Amino acid sequence: MKAAVLKKLGEAPVYEEFPDPVIANDQQEIITIKSASVKNLDKARAAGTHYSGYKQLPAVAGIDGVGLLADGTPVYAQGVSGTLAEKAVINKGQYIKLPEGIDADTAAALPNAVIGSAMALQFRAKIKQGSTVLVNGATGVTGIIAVQLAKYYGAGTVIATGRNARQLEKAKELGADHIISLLQEDAEVITQIKSIHQQTHIDYVIDYLWGRPAAMLLEALQGAGVNYVSDKVTIVTVGAMAGDLLPLSSGTLRSSDIEILGSGFGSLSSRQFQQFNTSLLPEAFQLVAEKKLHLEVDVVPLEDIQNAWNKPVSPGKRLVVKVS
Fold it and tell me: Where does the Enoyl reductase (ER) domain lie (predicted)?
C-alpha cells in the first residue's frame, strides 16, 4: 500500500510503498482510509519530542482518520497502526459512524478541535445557559470551534480575542458578540476586557494562549478594591501558544473569585473521554453535517505529504491529507 512513511525522527514522512497492516487478533479489523488530519501531536511524535513517540522505524505516521469499514460504513477511528496510509488497523467497535452529509476531509479534521473545545466547555468550565464566555485565542482551529460550541451549549455572550483580523471577523460571523484584537497595546486590550466585564460578567475563559495574553486577562478580571465583591470567573487553560509561563500575583487571586483549571489528557477522566466518544463528538459530526458547525481545512493528496508536512497552514485551518 501507499503510505506516509517516517524513516527518521525529526524528518518529514515520505510517500512510498509500505507493507499492508496485519490484524493481531479477532478484536481488530482493517479500515480503508479516506482522509486523515495532521496535528501538532502527529508532528511531535514524528519529531521524537512526545512521550508516545515511535519505538521502531520505519513506521506509518498518523494517529486517527476517517475511512470505510469492510461493509462500506464510513467511520472515524483512532488507529492501532498509522493512519496516513491507504489501510490501517483499528479496534473492533471502537469507532464512530459518520452521519450523511459530512465530507471525509472535514470529519478527519474535527475530533482534535472538539477535544480542545467541547471538553473544556462541558467538563472543566461546566458551562451554564446564559453565561458569558471569553475565548482567548479564538483565531485558531480549536478556538473557532470553541466560539461556535459555546453558543450552541447556551452561552448568552461570547467574546473572541486573537491576533488575526480576518479570523476575528470570521469568529464574529460564527457567533462571537465581541471581538478584541491582541495586536493593540496591552493597556487597550485590558481596558476593553474590563469594559465588557463590567457590562456582562465574564463567567468562563477558555484560554489557548497563556503567557502574556493570559496575564492581561488576569489584570482585567481582578478585583477593584477593599469594598469590591466579585462573582466567580473560571479560567480553563487548554494551550500555551503564547508561552508556557505567566506572572501570577497572590493579590490577583485574593482580590477576586478567580478559579484556574487545566483541560487536557491528564485532567480529564476515562468516563469523560467515554462521553466524548459516545456523545460530544457524534453530536459535533452531526452539527457539521447540518452546516451548524463550521471548520476550514487545507487538503493535500497523500503523495504530497513530504512537502506539506512542515509548510505553514493557513490561519484557522487544519491540514488534512486525502488518501483515497
Answer: 10-321
Kindly state the DSSP code that residue 267 receives in the 8-state scheme: G
Transcribe 192-240 into DSSP letters. Answer: HHHHHHHHS---EEEES--HHHHHHHHHHHS--STT-----EEEEE---
Using a pLDDT cut of 90, give the percent of the chain over it.
88
**How many alpha carbons lie under 13 Å from residue 182 in its C-beta half-sphere?**
23
For 217-245, write each residue's pLDDT tens digit.
999 998 755 445 568 999 999 999 999 99
Which are the contacts of 118, defined by CB distance < 8 A and separation ≥ 6? Answer: 145, 149, 276, 280, 281, 284
pLDDT band at 252 (very low <50, low <70, confident <90, very high): confident
Same domain, 205 and 253: yes
CATH number for the domain that contains residue 162: 3.40.50.720
Q: What is the DSSP string of 98-159?
A: PPTT--HHHHHHHHHHHHHHHHIIIIII---TT-EEEEETTTSHHHHHHHHHHHHTT-SEEE
Q: How many domains does the chain have?
A: 2
Helix, coil or strand: residue 91: strand
**Which set of grid coordinates corresponds to residue 134?**
471569553
Query: Residue 40 — pLDDT band, cuts 50, 70, 90?
Result: confident
Asked whether residue 68 falls in the same domain as residue 132, the answer is no
Residues 143 and 238 reside in one and the same domain: yes
Cα of first residue to Cα of last residue in the chain, in angstroms, is 12
